[in-house]
Amino acid sequence: MRLSTVILPVRRWLDGGRDEWQRAEQLGFHTAYTYDHLSWRTFRDGPWFGAVPTLTAAAAVTERLRLGTLVTSPNFRHPVTLAKDLISLDDVSGGRITLGIGAGGTGFDATALGQEPWTPRERADRFAEFVPLLDRLLTEDSVTYDGTFYSAVEARGIPGCVQRPRLPFAVAATGPRGLKLAARHGQAWVTTGDPKIFETGTPEQSRDAIRGQIERLGKACAEIGRDVSGVEKILLTGFTPDRSGPMESLDAFVDFAGRHFALGITEIAVHAPIPDSDFAADQRVFEQIATEALAQLRP
Fold it and tell me: Between 240 and which of 73, 88, 193, 205 could a Cys-Cys bridge form, CB atoms 3.0 to 4.6 Å apart?
């Protein structure tokens, strides 16, 4: 069982941003992630910094804490340039980077470069090409590829990642094609629950949906002869019907986490509190969860 956090890149580095990442390490979180967006929902008209520079800075001021994205997507990323950034970031961090990666959505990132939003089918098609190509770019010295959506011409990946054969992928997916990518290329799998029941569902329905997702991941792994127990299963909180309920008290979180660990989830990521936002929470409760929750959950 692992407990991680998500630090949204909304604070200037020298005005509290650096402190948040260092505090995450002090609190004992397994990983501190950040979103890889150009802007996001209600934060669109406020400060929002880039994920790769933020993680690079965080790597320089921490020593043990793993770092990563939840999640990077093809919306505004190209595998060739992303691979170079990731190799550099993994080097700076001494091999502490996890790449959370997903197909993307229809938010602001989907049109920021001037394109029309892709349909769900187009996003799935691009993701199916993006992930295997990125895998090659991070494991091979030179890659040439001519695909439907992406190309690479003798793209160099020297010296490669510190982590071998490459840094781990945490693949966010719930549909059949995405789960197959997670089974084949992911060291971890990410879910936020079932978005269809976020507004009107119950916690019980949400857990049933997650249980079903894990079962389908298991089938996707079995199809290629892989043991699903070797895939870490990450729940990004804040998007299930109980929303912020688990962050109201230590007891509420322990109950929430225990029910999800029982489903097969192996890592839970909670958002660092941001006042006056969807992620508002009591800082004292957040820190109590970080330091006390796992001890109550372990047999």
Answer: 193
pLDDT at 274 over 80: yes
Q: How far apart are CA 159 and CA 91, in angstroms?
A: 9
Q: Measure the CA–CA gap between 71 and 31, rounded to whole angstroms.
A: 14
Name, in order, each residue with C-beta under 8 angstroms of 158's C-beta and a sequence gap of 6 or more: 141
Q: Are 286 and 274 in contact (CB under 8 A)?
A: no
Which of 44, 54, 47 is closest to 89 using CA atoms? 54
**pLDDT tens per residue across span 97-139:** 999 999 999 988 999 999 999 999 999 999 999 999 999 999 9
- CA 35 to chain centroid, in Å, comes to 7
Supply 60's token pair: 């320089």
Task: Phi first, then psi: give them for residue 271, nearest 5 degrees.
Answer: -80, 135
The string of DSSP letters for 16-35 reads IIHHHHHHHHHHT-SEEEE-
Give CA–CA dist 267/237, Å, rounded: 11
pTM, full prediction: 0.97
Ramachandran region, residue 197 (left: φ > 0; alpha: ψ -120 to 50; beta: rest): alpha
The Cα 218–Cα 25 span in angstroms is: 32
User: Under 8 Å CB-to-CB from 216, ≥6 apart: which residues?
Assistant: 176, 179
In the 3-class helix/strand/coil scheme, how is 205-274 assigned residue by residue?
Answer: HHHHHHHHHHHHHHHHHHHCCCCHHHCEEEEECCCCCCCCHHHCCHHHHHHHHHHHHHHCCCEEEEECCC
Measured CA to CA in angstroms, residue 175 lies from 86, 213, 239, 245, 247 at distances of 26, 9, 17, 27, 29
Run of H or E including 178? helix 176-185
Residue 99's DSSP bridge partners are 69, 169
